[in-house]
Design a protein that fits this description.
- With about 350 residues, the chain is mainly α.
- The protein is built from eight helices and five strands; from the N terminus they run H-E-H-H-E-H-E-H-E-E-H-H-H.
- Strand 4 and strand 5 form a beta hairpin.
- The two termini are about 80 Å apart.
- The N terminus and C terminus are likely disordered.
């Protein structure tokens, strides 16, 4: 950046010594300058408010994701506890009085604890989602609407100051002045009349360049501290009036020289006007504290996870009478009920034997 600024200074002094060069430095009246700085501060405060809301949304989304991750684990734990309890209950129905009550109580407590933990995790997930979609979403919408209003007002006042400064520049620059220049061209194979005419055109172009305006800022691209003639001529524009040609003669046998005296009125092209406006706008922003913007997309910030309904409450399994007794590895006391059944005559089923039922 330092090198580019040095080059810019050298450019305005060396390369444009024959033209009217302008830069973007200027001053703003105290009152509008104060107003712009106040607006810029308010806009900066609102951006900080927006960023604070976005951070709260990110925290809530992290809590929501953590709750969803725990739901996966707790669902598995609850499913296992429920299956174990149902297995014990089925055995107890098939074999009344043989299941230790303490074993059923412990399994029931584990089932209830697993269900309670799963329910709490889902509540945390739902609370985080509700906070994002309701409270924080509303805060973000409200703050962003206020930010947009302040930003629009700030940029409008900056542009108003830029337009004012640009108009003053154009009026100051578009002043008629008298220039006198001499230009010499090689004739080559051209005849003297043709070479004379080319010399006049070259003198007119040089007078136009002398009275034109070239805008210079730190972004101007240059080569070897000079603008090329093509780059220079692409910007210079002016109107020549009261043209007087003199001192028209051959120089030696190969060149023709012409002197022109004319009134030159610089013209501001659209591209030059745009370049001047951008330079002035950058200068205004620099004077009031810099350009400010909220670059984050509010739509991305408020987007909630779509996994809220991924996990549903487990549906209780309807209890049915077990047809096959659990294996001995599950219930150690199972061996004795099997022997008692085998000793009974096959033709005489148990009379009036009522198995107890458990309702939940």
């Amino acid at each position: 950046m330092l090198i580019r600024n040095i080059i810019s200074i050298a450019l305005s002094v060396l390369a444009l010594s024959s033209t009217c060069s302008i830069a973007a430095s200027f001053t703003i009246a105290p009152e509008p300058l104060h107003d712009l700085r106040v607006q810029r501060k308010l806009l900066g405060d609102k951006v900080r408010d927006l960023e604070a809301v976005v951070r709260q949304i990110e925290v809530a989304k992290s809590e929501q994701k953590a709750a969803i991750a725990s739901i996966k684990r707790l669902e598995a734990e609850y499913g296992e506890a429920r299956r174990k309890l149902e297995s014990l209950q089925n055995f107890d129905r098939e074999n009344p009085g043989e299941m230790p009550p303490e074993k059923l109580r412990i399994a029931g407590d584990r089932n209830r604890e697993a269900f309670r933990a799963l329910k709490e995790a889902k509540e945390k997930r739902d609370l985080a989602g509700a906070k994002i979609n309701n409270e924080l979403n509303l805060d973000l919408d409200t703050n962003y609407a206020e930010y947009s209003r302040l930003k629009s007002s700030f940029e409008r006042d900056v542009n108003r100051e830029v337009d004012k400064q640009l108009q003053e520049r154009e009026q100051a620059l578009q002043q008629s002045k008298v220039v006198e220049v001499t230009e010499r061209v090689p004739c080559g194979d051209d005849s003297i009349p043709v070479c004379k005419e080319r010399s006049k055109k070259a003198a007119e172009l040089k007078a136009t360049e002398r009275g034109s305006v070239v805008f210079v800022n730190s972004m101007t691209e240059i080569k070897n501290f000079k603008l090329s003639k093509e780059e220079l001529r692409s910007e210079v524009q002016a109107t020549l009036t009261d043209k007087v040609f003199s001192n028209q003669h051959m120089v030696g046998e190969t060149e023709y020289e012409t002197t022109i005296r004319a009134s030159v009125v610089p013209a501001i092209s659209d591209s030059l006007r745009k370049q001047m406006a951008e330079g002035l706008r950058s200068e205004v922003y620099s004077m009031v504290g810099g350009k400010i913007d909220f670059v984050r997309n509010p739509v991305d910030a408020i987007a909630a996870d779509t996994t809220n309904d991924e996990y549903e409450e487990p549906v209780p399994v309807k209890k049915t009478r077990a047809k096959v007794k659990p294996k001995p590895v599950v219930i150690e006391e199972e061996e004795e009920p099997q022997q008692a059944v085998q000793q009974q005559p096959q033709s005489a089923p148990p009379k009036n034997k009522v198995r107890p039922t458990i309702s939940f």
